[in-house]
From TrEMBL:
<keyword id="KW-0238">DNA-binding</keyword>
<keyword id="KW-0805">Transcription regulation</keyword>
<protein>
    <submittedName>
        <fullName>AraC-type DNA-binding protein</fullName>
    </submittedName>
</protein>
<dbReference type="Pfam" id="PF12833">
    <property type="entry name" value="HTH_18"/>
</dbReference>
<dbReference type="GO" id="GO:0003700">
    <property type="term" value="F:DNA-binding transcription factor activity"/>
</dbReference>
<keyword id="KW-0804">Transcription</keyword>
<dbReference type="InterPro" id="IPR014710">
    <property type="entry name" value="RmlC-like_jellyroll"/>
</dbReference>
<dbReference type="InterPro" id="IPR018062">
    <property type="entry name" value="HTH_AraC-typ_CS"/>
</dbReference>
<dbReference type="GO" id="GO:0043565">
    <property type="term" value="F:sequence-specific DNA binding"/>
</dbReference>
<dbReference type="InterPro" id="IPR018060">
    <property type="entry name" value="HTH_AraC"/>
</dbReference>
<dbReference type="InterPro" id="IPR009057">
    <property type="entry name" value="Homeodomain-like_sf"/>
</dbReference>
<feature type="domain" description="HTH araC/xylS-type">
    <location>
        <begin position="202"/>
        <end position="300"/>
    </location>
</feature>
<dbReference type="InterPro" id="IPR011051">
    <property type="entry name" value="RmlC_Cupin_sf"/>
</dbReference>
Amino acid sequence: MCYESAVQVEREQIQIPSGHSFRVLRWSRSLREVENVLGPEQVERVKGEGTHWHFHVEMELTLFTSGTGTRFVGDHIGSFAAGDLVLLGERLPHYWHTRGSSSGISVQWHFPLGHALWSFPETASLSDLFRQASHGLRIRGPAAQQVAAWMQELTQAEGMDQLALLLRILACIQRTSTQEPQPLSARSFALATETHYQQAIAKAVRHLAAHFREEVRLEDVLKLTHLSRPTFARQFKKHSGRTFSEFLNRLRIQAACRDLQETDRSVLEIAMHSGFTQLSFFNRLFRRVMKCSPREYRGMKRG
């Protein structure tokens, strides 16, 4: 039976705990091992979804307190480290490819029009923030440090105290977003609440994230996803915002950027180690993406 007509994969189904208007998640080792924090001394295990390409109706604020890796948000691909704080809008596809262990906190909520939150006139300004979050927002600087501290408090609070902390967090991010917004994805996404192809694209993204340093053949990815070439091309662009080759090359450029910052390898060695086979192509692509040469990038990051 053809995969394309047989498989229907729903978005992640998030269950807000009874007695709560949002949920607080934390992990101390892996995004696969997540706790739903119900109170200061009460937690329950839930399935971690952050290790694969996915989306959900709920908005999400995610803080990494430790760990490094690659962040995928919409059509954005970038590195992250401890202290990384990102606000995700509704139905925005995302994925964190970690390098080893990690820890962090996530807060998830869904406040659609008609929700009791909007009955308070003071919350009207949040609608602009929620619209901006459709691209994903990275929060930096003093605001990020303050929000990170409040998110830690969320895991120890309950009831009205916990709700008050969430409102304080949103107000802080809203003030920051009006001053210096840091959108991640070049375009917003409005994926359907159900998709036939989400699982297939998730497999492709995981495969690329794990093997981009090697020779990656489209034919192998098509076998992995059980999709035809035209369907894969159409759905991959729809879900990731990039073509297959653009996505792969951006992964390789991001890896090269890390090596330029963290190692003393030559530019040639870094290009080859990142999956490129021609130095001239690597240099042209790097300049087009990063707006400078690899050597200039290394000088700026180390200067």
